[in-house]
Write a structure and sequence with these properties.
Elements (H helix, E strand, L loop, with lengths): L1 H23 L9 H5 L18 E4 L5 E8 L3 H4 E3 L5 E3 L1 H8 L5 E15 L4 E15 L3 H8 L8 E3 L5 E15 L4 E17 L4 E6 L4 E6 L1 E5 L11 H7 L5 E12 L5 E15 L5 E4 L7 E3 L5 H6 L4 H15 L3 E4 L2 E4 L3 E10 L5 E10 L7 E11 L5 E10 L2 E13 L2 E7 L13 E12 L5 H7 L4
Length: 471
């Protein structure tokens, strides 16, 4: 029992630390998607919509040639971290309560392509192969816990909602894509992906409420917390990371991406839409586990949280207090740990974009796009973008700027550039450059890099030139 309790406490501490890191660190900084939907001749566009293939074969530089990372938070670093007159940083408890009220998103995403290449297999047919490692972290906030710890007058009767919905997933995927030109205007594409789950911590809802009465706290609710490729109880005696490495390859999955693209007859309109990451990872029961409470719908007396006075005077960290709260909560609600496999859906993405070319040479482009994401169970995170792109007549440069309104942050200004020099392409974009001027005040940003090498299709240079600028 002692070993089970130690591992349960460790994973709870890990989840809480992850939330705090994303909130106070990465949150000041969704992987960037809008520029990839509107940049022409960009192989990285196929990662979201397989129909957006370039007009030439390509290979991206291995490992470093196709990379994107980003984080989102409903509040900024400066909102919750302050500096006193002696230059010492401290947690602004009032700021934390104010900024987390009604805010329900912390998210980080990472995509690293180990292999990414594409090639023609026919006059109208194009295929791609990709091997990627990906990480998704998404969760809601237990804002009632912050209120109970930091804003709990002794003479008030209140109920605090501790609910949260963690969804942490790391996986590798091998994808094979196919795109076909149906005619001169329509193109469709699809990708089938074999997945291998690396690690996960997931729940469809940790629904817990604490009721403050005259002389005690009463806690009610239940939760189920699942660990993919993580043995919360430490049944075989191995370490957490030892288990992860030993069981790689035991958690398969499958997913698909679907997309379509349309080009008007006058070549001024380009429209695309699709869905990505429709699929799931199937976690093996042999090396996965579940923490499940058994309250039976009853309320139990809750003996509080250790270290509250230390949090106020600065001698105890917030992480220690949160760890104490969830350890005591698990004991009170009679949580136990068992082996158990489960199915975890990928965070699916839905997208649509439209681009219109202005002027006689179609160098000036205006565009709009929509990207929707399900970061955790029951949540929709959306981003609507409007932008402008300038493309040189030679096709060497694409200079891009856009404004994006996200569900957690209405102000994002993005910049991007793509350079094509013969068979070499360099792409760099950020969906929010405001952090470059005030990192501590930013609620999120993401950066994408692409380094690609094109190969001309033999015997089809005429067709290649025809599509180069507009599709």
């Amino acid at each position: 029992m002692r070993m089970k309790k130690r591992y349960r406490v460790r994973v709870i501490r890990s989840v809480l630390c992850l939330v705090l890191v994303v909130a106070a660190g990465l949150g000041r900084g969704s992987a960037q998607d809008h520029f990839t939907l509107t940049t022409r001749e960009l192989p990285q566009s196929m990662g979201l919509n397989p129909a957006l293939r370039p007009s030439r074969g390509f290979v991206s530089m291995p490992i470093f040639g196709s990379f994107s990372v980003g984080a989102e938070s409903s509040f900024s670093y400066r909102d919750v971290i302050r500096t006193d007159e002696q230059g010492v940083k401290y947690l602004d408890t009032r700021g934390l309560l104010r900024t987390t009220e009604g805010r329900d998103l912390l998210m980080m995403r990472l995509n690293l392509d180990l292999v990414n290449l594409g090639f023609f297999v026919g006059e109208r047919d194009y295929m791609g192969v990709s091997l990627r490692t990906r990480v998704h972290v998404g969760t809601s906030l237990p804002e009632g816990l912050f209120g109970m710890i930091l804003d709990n007058p002794i003479d008030e009767y209140r109920t605090f909602d501790w609910s949260m919905t963690p969804n942490v997933l790391g996986w590798a995927e091998l994808g094979v894509s196919y795109a076909r030109d149906l005619d001169e205007r329509w193109r469709v594409g699809g990708r089938v992906k074999y997945l291998n789950g690396l690690a996960a911590v997931q729940s469809t809802g940790m629904d817990v409420r604490v009721r403050k009465e005259y002389d005690r706290y009463m806690v009610s609710g239940d939760y189920t917390l699942r660990g993919g490729n993580i043995d919360f109880a430490g049944r075989d005696g191995g370490g957490l990371f030892d288990d992860l490495l030993r069981n790689i390859g035991s958690n398969p999955g499958v997913a698909v991406d679907l997309g379509a693209a349309y080009r008007s007859e006058n070549q001024r309109w380009n429209v695309s839409f699709g869905v990505a990451d429709l699929g799931a990872v199937f976690w093996n029961a042999r090396n996965s586990s579940v923490i499940r409470t058994h309250s039976g719908g009853k309320s139990f007396e809750f003996y509080g949280v250790d270290g509250l006075s230390g949090l106020i005077d600065g001698t105890t960290s917030l992480g220690h207090v949160l760890d104490s709260a969830y350890t005591e909560l698990s004991r009170t609600l009679r949580a136990d740990t068992t082996a158990g496999g489960f199915t975890q859906m990928l965070p699916a993405t839905f997208h649509a974009a439209a681009d219109y070319a202005l002027g006689p040479y179609m160098r000036h482009h205006v565009n709009v796009s929509f990207v929707g994401l399900v970061p955790y169970h029951g949540k929709l995170h959306y981003a609507i973008s409007a932008g402008y792109t300038y493309r040189t007549l030679t096709g060497t440069w694409q200079l891009m700027a856009n404004y994006t309104c996200k569900s957690n942050n209405p102000l994002n200004v993005g910049l991007g550039v793509a350079m094509n020099a013969g068979k070499f392409q360099l792409y760099l974009a950020a969906d929010n450059v405001i952090p470059a001027f005030s990192l501590a005040r930013a609620r999120g940003t993401s950066v994408s890099l692409g380094i690609n090498f094109f190969t001309s299709r033999q015997g089809d240079r005429r067709r290649e030139r025809r599509y180069y600028y507009h599709y």
